[in-house]
Amino acid sequence: MKKNLHFIFGDQLSHKLLNLIHFDWQNDVVLMCEVKEEASYVRHHPKKIAFIFSAMRHFAEELRKKGAKVEYVKFDDENNLGSFDAELEKAIKKHNPQKVLLTEPSEYRVWQKVINWQKTIEIPFEIFPDERFLCSKIDFRNWAKGKKQLRLEFFYREMRKKYKILLDKKMGPAGGKWNYDEQNRKSPENNIKSPKRISHKKDEITKEVLVLVEKHFKKNFGDLLPFHFAVNNSQAMLEAQHFIDELLPNFGDYQDAMFAGEAYLYHSLLSSYINVGLIDPLELCQMAEKSYLSGKAPLNSVEGFIRQILGWREYVRGIYWLYSPQYFESNFFNAKNNLPEFYWGKKTKMFCIEEVVKQTKENSYSHHIQRLMITGNFALLSEIDPKKVHEWYLAVYADAFEWVEMPNTIGMALHADGGIMASKPYAASGKYISRMSNFCDKCSFDPEISVGSKACPFNSLYWNFISKNEDKLKKNQRMQFVYPTWYKMSEEKRNQILNQAKFYSEQIYNNEL
Ligand code: FAD
Ligand code: DLZ
Ligand code: SF4
To answer: Global pTM?
Structure first.
């Protein structure tokens, strides 16, 4: 009896993969490999590499326990050839399979490899859709067809109906509204303190991986230790249940809040687990819905959480595949600056940036509003080249895979796609940051001041951005109140602000801010 070879990538750690459903437990072989090419296409945070390698090794063990033969190539194996191409070729030579089976990779880069294998390798490939995603690429394309604007809200409503999540008896939205976002913008309170998070005991597999990562990746930005990540499905589900029971009730209220020293607030920290396959996104939405139906969590929290997963997560994946590869080149504002060194931990006087970068370095995590309104907003206002910003986000976060990171960075944070994803740029001055966080209380700059030595850099950079991009933004309906405010200022004031922005831009360029 001839065998098949199943190639499983590092973000496909799910027993529900369609190719595994076709697995012949008597004969077939699984190939998994830790390769230099994947571990270094950007300088990934050490925690991210440790998490992925440990989760891969645990998944391989689970498959072995179920009776599968697994060809697992460790990063420091002597004969590791360093790339998917070479390891696949080696495994084919060794096992002489009838066919190679795999689930479509999540990223365009790896998809190009698969296309190339089909052309150059003589044995047949069978490629399965990735059904962990709740909207297929074709369904998204069909939804997008003929639409002038691809707005999340309408896509999200379709997804709620398709999966019958949070619907009333008449198939309308539970509680009468589809979206409770306006209830999810509470400012932080002074004594905010979120519940303690679950930490997992490190087993021998994780300990071995930590030694390996320390040896090979210690020059990458980020702290390897302490390492708290779940590395298998049962640990990840413990975290999911803990989130649903202890944190979800407050998730909505504090979704947009930022607080110094509180990196996680009421966010779930589940993105990395969902993205690599340790948690099934639909199951998680159903757990959240159950919590609402049993009266444990309020609707604004549950709807807000489900919208992120059933809505945003699927929507950004749809956008990524609809517009790849041209999306990679988007640069609507023609931004060309380098990423300042303080994104890599060099000291800055701006407390908000310093705090978010510090949390990122320590945890390989930062919550959505910090990614969008602090590091993302600053990159937008200071005209940093989208490719450089994209590489930073892809490197530093444990949940970063290009299909989800790129639309969020290029589209949502930088508006570099010219408005495919967001109807207006998420540009904001220091006043927004002051309202949604306690960062400004700890900063030497003042969010109320735009000119002078105490002026918050976000303020003048914001108006500079508005002024410079007037031709691109003035006609935007959602910016209609911005330009009258700018022109209501005296010419002298406007010039002072623009000079201040010039001063700060030079400081940023010289890494002096
Ligand atoms: P929660 O706030 O608890 O949200 C619940 C879940 O919803 C998340 O686990 C995630 O699966 C999903 N979700 C929420 N927002 C989004 C979104 N905008 N897009 C897709 N899924 C979403 N998310 C990633 O998974 N990987 C990335 O590389 C990534 N890069 C980002 C870059 C930028 C510039 C921005 C603005 C956002 C990015 N996001 C990314 C989206 C979001 O910030 C993270 O999903 C979220 O912070 C993860 O933390 P959490 O699990 O605690 O999320
Ligand atoms: C992110 C990552 C890293 C750091 N290393 C590996 C690896 O060595 N082997 C592997 O199979 N996957 C790795 N990954 C995740 C892959 O980049 C991910 O599977 C692809 O992005 C799929 O498109
Ligand atoms: Fe950031 Fe400005 Fe507030 Fe300082 S004053 S924390 S730079 S927004």
So the answer is: 0.97
List the end-to-end C-alpha distance of the chain, in Å, as a whole number.
67
Could you give the CA distance from residue 20 to residue 8 in angstroms, rounded to a whole number? 9
Q: Best of 355, 431, 440, 453 to mutate for ligand 3, by most ligand atoms within 8 A of CB?
A: 440
Which residues lie closer than 8 Å to 171 by C-beta, 6 or more apart?
Answer: 161, 164
**What's the CA gap between 388 and 409, in Å, rounded?**
10
The ligand 1 site (C-beta within 6 Å) comprises: 267-271, 274-275, 305, 308-309, 312-313, 316, 367-368, 371-372, 376, 393, 397, 399-400, 404-405, 408-409, 412-413
Q: Torsion angle, CA of 237/238/242/248, rounded to 10 degrees?
A: -10
Mean pLDDT by 10 residues, the chain (513 residues): 93 96 95 97 98 98 97 97 98 97 97 98 96 97 94 96 95 93 70 84 97 97 97 98 95 88 94 98 98 96 96 98 96 97 96 98 97 98 98 98 98 96 95 95 97 97 97 91 95 98 94 89
Closest listed ligand to the CA of 399: 1
